[in-house]
Automatic annotation (TrEMBL):
This is NrdH-redoxin. Residues 15-70 form the Glutaredoxin domain. PROSITE patterns: GLUTAREDOXIN_2, THIOREDOXIN_1. InterPro entries: Glutaredoxin, Thioredoxin-like_sf, Thioredoxin_CS. CDD domains: NrdH. Gene3D superfamilies: Glutaredoxin.
Length: 90
């Protein structure tokens, strides 16, 4: 059985942040995470094959961004910075 494509995007620490080039919410959240010192890997779903499907799997078939994947494999769509901070502390 082959590994899930998601496994490549589950971070050891910090978050993986799925974005698009035009997303204002993504830019805002990136800025807040940088201010908070939260490590993230940005993956643009318009440029990285297979990633729109990963985002859709977390969002009922929608390509909603920002979608963040945490080290435990869970995800959050357009979370507030306090939610990101709290989930990383657990």
């Amino acid at each position: 059985m082959s590994e899930s494509p998601l496994n490549e995007y589950i971070p050891a620490s910090g978050v993986t942040m799925f974005t698009t080039s035009w997303c204002g919410y993504c830019r805002n959240l990136k800025r807040m995470m940088e201010t908070e010192g939260i490590d993230y890997r940005e993956v643009n779903i318009e440029e990285t094959p297979g990633t729109p499907e990963i985002v859709e799997s977390f969002n009922n078939g929608n390509q909603t961004v920002p979608t963040l994947v945490f080290p435990d494999g869970s995800a959050a769509t357009n979370p507030r910075i306090d939610e990101v901070r709290a989930r990383l502390q657990n």
